[in-house]
Amino acid sequence: MPRAETPTDYIVFGLDTDLNKAMRQSITETLQFLKEKQGYDLFQAYALSSIAVKYHVTQVVDVTLGIHGMIPKKIFIHDPNTYWYRPPS
Fold first, then answer.
1. What is the CATH number of domain 3-75?
2. Model pTM?
3. Which residue from 35, 15, 27 is spatially nearest to 69, judged by alpha carbons?
4. Mind listing the pLDDT tens digit for each residue in 17-35?
């Protein structure tokens, strides 16, 4: 699944014709992201995602339904700001 990034959040997605499956996929993508980014095991990733990640409905207008999860960067307190875009000064 694609991922996205804003200055304040990492974003994971879940897409399916069933909104429940899209939500499950978004959660799975969140857990995979946390395992890759921080090296968390499944239980650590579940615990963190249950309190820190906000899920929103992204898409409901056609056959493909979507959920996105917003993972706040501020929970990664030791990470430098590596966001790729810098506005002109």
1. 3.10.28.20
2. 0.85
3. 27
4. 999 999 999 999 999 999 9
